[in-house]
Amino acid sequence: MTQDKFDEYRLYGRRQGSPLSPRQQQLVEKLLPLVQISKCEDREKKLHPGEIFSDKFSRFHLEIGFGGAEHLVWQAQRAPDIGFIGCEPFINGVVKLLTSIEELKLDNIRVCDHDARDFLSHLPVSCIEKTYILFPDPWPKQRHRKRRFINQTTLNQLSRVMVPGAHLCFASDIPDYVTWVKAHIASSDCFEIIDVEPVEKPQTRYEQKAVREGRSSVYLTIACIK
């Protein structure tokens, strides 16, 4: 991978919102290092999910941008035999996940708190059985749309690391972003939309906000057909 490619991995937006409480800071200092996937500085190195979980699991799901972690925690509780990897650079969201990991004693979650695109570049071929991208930042302004996570580059990354036949579950309450995703899927040789019904999951805070503000959500189940 070229230097130019790595230079494209820029994070936009805030890394932290409200200040952390002493208890939250303690979780960051004590618990996060135990479940954290450190950023790999070797650009050619591949990191198999089995290594991340010390070979405790053989099946792996990925959530990119887990926000307040409601969905990720719910999935991890329902499927204790699956290793879940959550990617979220926003530290306040990471702290919410850490709180749940500690309180519920979850041992099947690992956290990538840096750019998911960089993390994807280090995963080997066909190792992820399901990927969730739920209510991602829509970057609604025209000049910011290049920041949207779903594009041909990331779809190519996902198709490489996902098992053939695996599902990518996407949800958004922003019609323009849904149209954007459908167009990119239509242009991809690796994915096709197979369902537009809601997947079974808890209602996240972002979805609750959409409901309060009168916006309906669209759910896409997208199959990896490579």
Task: Work out the oligomeric state of the chains in this entry.
Answer: single chain
Q: Could you state the CATH homologous superfamily?
A: Vaccinia Virus protein VP39
Q: Structural class, judged by helices and strands?
A: alpha/beta
Parts with pLDDT < 50 across at least 5 consecutive residues: 1-8
Beta-strand residue percentage? 15-25%
Straight-line distance between termini: 22 Å
H/I helix tally: 10
* Helix share bin: 25-40%
Count of separate structural domains: 1
Question: Regarding CATH, which class?
Answer: Alpha Beta
Tell me what the structure shows:
This protein is α/β, with parallel strands linked by helices and 226 residues long. It has a single domain, classed as 3-Layer(aba) Sandwich (Rossmann fold). 36% of the residues lie in helices and 19% in strands. The protein has ten helices and seven strands. Strands 3-2-1-4-5-7-6 form a seven-stranded mixed beta sheet, sandwiched between helices. The longest helix has 14 residues. It is globular, with a radius of gyration of 17 Å. The N terminus is likely disordered.
